[in-house]
Each structure stands twice: as C-alpha cells, then as structure tokens.
C-alpha cells in the first residue's frame, strides 16, 4: 500500500515515492496527453521518466489521483534551473486548483535544489494559467507533438 494512502483519504500534492504512485501519475498522463490530446504513446514517455534526478509529483483529491507533473534539472543560461514538464490534471478536476498546486510543489522542490529559475514548454491554450503564476513567454510559438507550445520561464528564489 502506498505511504500516502495509509493515512486515510489523502488530499494534496506529493513527490512520487512508490511504484503505485508512479503508475497513477503515468495513467493521468495517458488520459490527458495520449487519449485526450492525441500525443503518440512513443512521444509521451522518454528517458527522463527513469532518470533518478527527475522528481515526479502526484496530486490526490480525497484519495483519488487527479494530477501529475515532473521536474528535471537542466542548465539554462549558464545557471542551474528546473524544467517543469508533463503537467496534467484529469478533466474532472481541472477547475479545482490542482494545476496551481502542482506548480507550487515543483517550484518548492526547485528552490530546495538551488535552481534560480523554472523553464517550461507550455501549450499555448495554457499560457494564461502560467502567466497568473508569474511565468513570462520567451519564445515564439513552436510545435511539439502536433500541439502549439511556447517557452516560458520564471525566476525563483527561497523566501527570506
């Protein structure tokens, strides 16, 4: 049994710590990216999914996995940065704030890791969401997996 479920109904965002949580995170990605958006399965999964330096997140609403994201360390403009990827929330939970909670969790981990900024490739339809969280568009539109994206970034620092 996964450690978060042992406590009873779970509500919040956690770092993936078990195979069960990992499977739940991947199921969410499949539902959102492969089933809803038509991303080819072979493009959805990559070597970063098994990289031990990558942090995967899972969001639970009352014990049900509803969202996921991953954060991987990169070098950006000569500084250590975090790249947020694979942010996905199930359609039934999209208006419940889980995207924001996943991003806050990723930012907190990135700060703890000493990163100075977060970078992401956001789908253009989600640009306003990321802008509300303080991200700035730094590229023209480009296509990934047949979907329009933009590169966005945000400086981050530990609160004093």
Automatic annotation (TrEMBL):
UniProt xrefs under PROSITE patterns: GNAT
Single GO MF descriptor: acyltransferase activity, transferring groups other than amino-acyl groups
Residue ranges constituting the N-acetyltransferase domain according to the UniProt record: 12-157
Matching Pfam families: Acetyltransf_10 (PF13673)
Keywords: Acyltransferase, Transferase
Organism of provenance: Natronocalculus amylovorans
Protein biosynthesis as UniProt keyword: no
Keyword Acyltransferase attached: yes
UniProt protein name: GNAT family N-acetyltransferase
EC number, as in UniProt: 2.3.1.-
Coiled coil stretches, renumbered: none
């Amino acid at each position: 049994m996964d450690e978060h479920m042992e406590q009873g109904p779970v509500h919040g965002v956690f770092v993936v710590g078990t195979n069960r949580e990992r499977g739940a995170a991947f199921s969410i990605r499949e539902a959102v990216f492969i089933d809803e958006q038509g991303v080819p399965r072979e493009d959805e999964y990559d070597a970063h999914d098994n990289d031990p330096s990558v942090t995967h997140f899972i969001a639970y609403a009352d014990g049900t996995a509803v969202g996921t994201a991953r954060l991987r360390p990169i070098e950006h403009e000569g500084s250590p940065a975090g790249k947020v990827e694979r942010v996905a929330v199930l359609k039934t939970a999209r208006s419940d704030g889980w995207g924001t909670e996943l991003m806050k969790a990723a930012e907190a981990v990135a700060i703890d890791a000493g990163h100075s900024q977060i970078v992401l490739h956001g789908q253009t339809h989600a640009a306003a969401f990321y802008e509300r969280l303080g991200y700035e568009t730094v590229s023209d539109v480009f296509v990934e997996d047949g979907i329009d994206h933009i590169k966005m970034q945000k400086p981050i620092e530990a609160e004093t």
